[in-house]
Amino acid sequence: MTRPALLDVKDLTVRFRTPAGRLTAVDRLSFDIAAGETLAIVGESGCGKSVTAMALLRLLRSPPAEISGSHVRFEGTDLLALSERAMRDVRGNRIAMIFQDPLSALNPVRTVADQIIESLKRHTGLRGPALHRRAVELLDLVRIPEPQRRADDYPHHFSGGMRQRVMIAIAIAANPRLLIADEPTTALDVTVQAQILKLIVSLQKEFGMSLLLISHDLGVVAETADRVLVMYAGRKVEERPVADLFARPLHPYTRALMRARPTPGLRRELLDEIPGIVPSLADLPPGCAFAPRCAHADETCARLQPVLEGVGGGGSVACLHLDRLAGEKPRAPVLEGVPA
Amino acid sequence: MSLDATDILPRAPAASAPAAPKPRRAVRASSFGYRFLRSRTALAGSIGLALVAGAALFAGQIFPGDPLDMVARPFIWPFTSAEYPLGTDMLGRDILVGLVYAARVSLAVGLAAAGLAVALGVVFGALSGYFGGWVDQVLTRITEVFQTMPPLVFVVVVVAILTPSVSSIVLGIAVTSWPQVARLVRAEALRLRDAEFVQAARVMGMGHFRIILTHILPNAISPVVVAGSILVASAILTEAALSFLGLGDPNLISWGSMIGSGREVLRTAWYMTALPGLAISLTVMALNLLGNGLNDVLNPRVSLT
Amino acid sequence: MSAPVETPALEVRDLVVSYNTGRGPLSAVDGVSFAIRPGETLGLVGESGCGKSSLAKAIVQLVEPSSGALKVEGHDITGLTARERRALRPKVQMVFQDPMGALDPRQRAGTILETPLKLNGVRGKAERRARVASLMEAVGLRPEFIDRLPHEFSGGQRQRIGIARALALDPAVIVCDEPVSALDVSLQAQVLNLLRKVQRETSVAYLFISHDLSVVEHIADRVAIMYLGRIVELAPRETLWRAPLHPYTRALIEALPRIDPGASRIADKTIVGGDLPSPFAPPKGCRFHTRCPIAVARCAIDAPALSDAGDGHLVACHLASGAVPAPNASAALQPA
């Protein structure tokens, strides 16, 4: 990691004021993304991964959300300190975002060309007929067949996968440096998911963008990311280069997640359940948030909140028993599945 | 683009820690009674309504005797006599007693008309929304026929044909107001009939009518309750208008008929019109408050502060 | 094929489900046949629009099939009167995708579980209560949860109630329609394990429908792959995974994200292109030929029949070597 960080987030904290009390959806999260790099944030629903993406672009309504932190530095500028007006110039321009549900993110009564043109107008110097030409080019770039003809269609004429391609075309229209993709393929079928991910990754290379991929799917993350950040209950529990993480997960939660997932070709009679459920953010245990469900936890874990410790290779893990776990034989299912 | 906290927050706290004793409290906090008491509008409306209903129910105990009896000299102005605090009318009848007895008729007409309208509307709406297809086509056309009639004119016609009486007034009002309820219930039934829990009921062999009774109606009832309380208010107003026009039940005293008879002396003794008018306004306002309040109470997305 | 002939828990033969829609007739299921034996799990994999939900609805009699036979424990339920059909209804139950939507938000867990018993003639409140208690125990819900409303449960617990409800009537088959796709990984594992445990104890047969091949690969004994209303391949789980014959199956397996960042990166994968053709105007011949990487001229003309490639491995592809048209299709359809 010698490249300078494009995005540098330090101690990002997002709290929500709710009738049930104040809860911390993201707790002192720090990470960075280098130019051209892909960082994936992975975790289950409610872990704070989507809130993080929203908070970076300051898309959360405040109140109830309160964003704080040391800094969110993007290309050297602290986004937390920017005025709303200046922030608007960053959004969609330097940082673009695509969402899980492309249909609700597109305007149903305007053609897709119009919607791409809108983004081009706001973020580029293009004017006149060049706008439409560029819109068609972008549709071609996201591999929409017959772009010239499809440009004047409305979103409901497109399939789910094609709509997500349109969203991507809008997102890359301004040639952003960072693309945030929040569960971009979760609503899509398996083959279409693979097409879209492949498209995102190839555009990333072509445009030299950085990618922040938010996903719940370990498989998607394993095939796409350079580095992976695992979140649980609003906190980072592990961050590792992708190969290290999947070869040798260290945090008990990461391990448990991998073992809970069916692994094709390695059938086990029963999957390893993670007992219990994710704790309520309004009522987190005082120590490690995963302790109540953790097979390795002892009474210290219930009291002390672990801090992140470096584990080499640029990785870090937040577990009080890291020494013990690091010495153990890795127990990822990939290596120990029970052949039939 | 922006989000509500509710869109992104993991889960409602009540759902996320079911094993802890905590949710028990949260359950109670979300219960109907608790939310009702926390809604000031609903509470104010129901207190007002309870006063009117109390007066109507216990009119005979509070003021024995006939409200149409001439008890004193006519034209006593309000707040001038300790014995007749609200004064007397041009025939020497006690206005306070009249108002209290009239509450009976107004409330009875309002409740009966709204009840009948809700009953009709629920049946039509539930059948047409749940079954869809030709059933829906036929029932919706019928509903539209009734909806296109100007309500007051239609009621006047019905009452004129059937001779004025409480039951003909109730019938007239109910017949013109059920389509609103039917449309509401139809929309809810249409939404619910494809819900997975309804499919689940069919898979386990539940019949259509039982599904309507146990799954569709209980889940469609909130907007109906709200609409019902507003319907009571508008029925009271319609009854008053009819009585004012001389189409009320001649044997009974209602707020509308009091206004109607006070009309002739409006210039000299305006209080005879104003007092029953005030009674109507307050009752209608209480019902509207209750309706709006119930809307908040029954809609869990509205937080009550 | 040496096992004695056993009555399948569910047998589907040449089933067709079509709808009249505003855009014209739509054949959602176009001649599907299979059989599931008691205690067996048949996985059914397909992408959206392939007709798997319509097939599920036809099997649980939420929609009327246009033609074909549907046999439950040997009794054909098509062409029966409503009353006769009602008697067979408890035999086929369903677990739904959305654990919240499948439970009436105003009914307590106890009522939800008691209703099927009431409807199907379990008389006596005490008996029903006892049965509800044992159902809750069977799916790992604590007895004190009986008076809770659906929103007071977590997603996984709600799905447990859904499973308990399906079990209440002692069904021969449970159609599980994407039962874990709305759940997080950790809850997914709990529900999948529960389904397996329940099957071991009751010998119920599952038709397990999912878009996720890795989940199906875990839970199913045999797997059927569906594309635009037709089954294109059906094989024992292991065979399908190790030696898929249909190009669509291969494409699905290739597209499946794998946890092996050293060997499997999205940038290096060959992904089948294109979108699902409109089910209103399915391609002539083999329905996959418009996207198929190995299609030849014949594929656009002839629709390949589902043929036996040996050992109960059925495939509908002209180019699948070894597949011979089964002279006796019904024998091939019987579980191995």
Order of helices and strands of chain B: HHHHHHHHHHHHHH
Share of helical residues of chain A: 25-40%
- Terminal CA distance of chain B: 27 Å
Share in helix of chain B:
over 70%
User: What's the structural domain tally of chain B?
Assistant: 1
Task: Give the oligomer, counting copies of the same chain as homo and different chains as hetero.
Answer: heterotrimer
Rounded to the nearest angstrom, the radius of gyration of chain B is: 24 Å
Structural overview:
The complex is a heterotrimer of chains A (340), B (305) and C (336). Chain A folds into two domains: 5-225, P-loop containing nucleotide triphosphate hydrolases (Rossmann fold), CATH 3.40.50; 248-336, no CATH class. Chain A is built from 14 helices and 13 strands. Chain A has helices spanning 49-56, 84-90, 102-105, 112-123, 129-141, 147-150, 160-172, 190-207, 218-224, 242-247, 252-260, 299-303, 322-327, 333-336, and strands at 5-18, 21-34, 38-42, 65-68, 71-74, 77-78, 95-98, 178-182, 210-215, 227-232, 235-241, 309-312, 315-317. An eight-stranded mixed β-sheet of chain A has the order 7-8-9-3-10-11-13-12, sandwiched between helices. In chain A, a hairpin with a 2-residue loop joins strand 10 and strand 11 (235-241). In chain A, helix 5 crosses helix 7. The model of chain A is unreliable at 330-340 (pLDDT under 50). With 305 residues, chain B is mainly alpha-helical. Chain B has a single domain (54-298), classed as MetI-like fold, CATH 1.10.3720.10. Chain B is built from 14 helices and no strands. Chain C is of the alpha/beta class and 336 residues long. Chain C has a domain at 244-336. Chain C is 29% helix and 21% strand. Chains in contact: A-B, A-C, B-C. Chains A and C meet through helix 7, helix 8, helix 9, helix 10 and helix 11 of A and helix 6, helix 7, helix 8 and helix 9 of C.
List keywords for this structure.
B: 305 residues, mainly alpha, MetI-like fold, disordered N terminus, C: 336 residues, alpha/beta, 8-stranded mixed beta sheet, 4-stranded antiparallel beta sheet, 10 helices, disordered C terminus
